[in-house]
Amino acid sequence: MSEIKGLTIKNQQDLTSIEASSSNQHGLIYITHGAPKNWVAKPEEMVSHTLAGLFKALDQIDDARIQNLMRDYGLVYRELEIDTE
Asked: Number of structural domains, the chain?
């Protein structure tokens, strides 16, 4: 496991917050547990489930604005097979 400077993840009972901080950007991302698309996630997998699901959904939207935004920030999403073992 590695730590990434500037990212702080805090888990609460019904909410996870991700604070992202750099010298040029500073923001807070909230993940509410039990949302329509993440209610199936195990609590310990909530962040990864939510982020993977969001990027999968964004990747499937045929909109140049989203594609350009992802490219501008150097983000690429590639869906992988789910490990069932």
From this structure: 1
Q: Which two tokens stand for residue 6?
A: 């500037």
Instruction: Identify whether 43 is part of a domain.
Output: yes
Reported for 9-15, long-range contacts at CB under 8 A and 24+ positions apart, including other chains, are 9/47, 11/43, 11/46
Q: Using one digit for the tens of pLDDT, what is the confidence trace for 36-59?
A: 999 899 888 999 999 999 999 999
State the Cα–Cα distance between residues 37 and 62, nearest whole angstrom: 20
Expressed as residue numbers, the domain containing 14 is: 7-72
pTM recorded for the entire structure: 0.84
DSSP type of residue 74? T
How far is it between the farthest Cα atoms of the chain? 41
